[in-house]
Amino acid sequence: MLVDENLSMTRQFALADQKANHILGCIKSSTASRLREGILPFCSALVRPHLKYCIQFWSPHHRKDMNLLEWVQRRATKIIRGLEPLSYEERLRKLGLFSLEKRRLWGDLIASFQYLKGASKKAGKGLFTRACRDRRRGNSFKLKEGRFRSDIRNKFFTMWAVRHWNRLPREGVNVPSLEVFKARLDGALNNLV
After folding, report:
1. Does residue 92 lie in a domain region?
2. Cα–Cα distance between 58 and 13 in angstroms, integer?
3. Highest mean pLDDT among 54-58, 76-80, 176-180, 189-193
4. DSSP string of 113-180?
5. Does residue 128 surpass a pLDDT of 80?
């Protein structure tokens, strides 16, 4: 992890972008087939890990940093034959992928579920506070959002995840297992961000 004296992660974003672009260039120059079945597995196995390594720690919040990382996935989807003229969103839809921002949110909500209901239930009790509301709208497992004077605290995992967790539908949160939660989260994410 690269952090400068101002606790800025800009160097980390640049390094992740550089490594992922380098590997993407190698994939592009060394594969003969530009078909989905040839490119997508390579990108998933070799490029994406550089874009999401320790992402919960250095999660990008500024648009310029998010765009820097998203640009790599844009290039990767544009390599695939037949998808070149489509917009980025249409390419993602055809490939069945999420943008990197939605993937980060997906991972954060799964981690929140595990803290609250899964294997890390004891650790989750100190991490999140359940809201005492008897509203009939939304999910019945709402979490309490803290209020802080400083805006920087809103970027922390516990604040970011709570805001989106509370927006999940009732049938997405009240599930018995992680597998069911993941399946319902995929459908809910299309309407969330």
Report:
1. yes
2. 8
3. 76-80
4. HHHHHSTTHHHHHHH--B-----SSS-S--BPPP--SSGGGGGSHHHHHHHHHTTS-HHHHS-SSHHH
5. no
What is the distance, to the nearest Å, from the Cα of residue 1 to the centroid of all Cα atoms in its chain?
19
Residue where a domain terminates, one of 82, 97, 112? 97
Residue-wise pLDDT for 22-72, tens only, equals 999 999 898 888 888 888 889 888 988 887 766 656 666 677 878 888 898
Query: Considering the domain boundaries, does residue 3 fall inside one?
Result: no
Element (H, E) at 184: helix 178-192
pLDDT (average), residues 64-92: 88
Q: Indicate if 85 and 124 belong to the same structural domain.
A: no
DSSP letter at 81 equals T
Among 38, 70, 97, the domain-final residue is 97
What is the domain count for the chain?
A: 2
- Cα 97 to chain centroid distance, Å, stands at 11
Does pTM surpass 0.85? no
Contacts 24+ apart (CB under 8 A), 179-187: 181/110, 181/113, 182/110, 185/106, 185/109, 185/110, 186/106
Stretch 2-19: mean pLDDT: 74
Q: What is the mean pLDDT of residues 5-16?
A: 73
Flag whether 2 is in a domain: no
Distance CA 117, CA 144 (A): 16
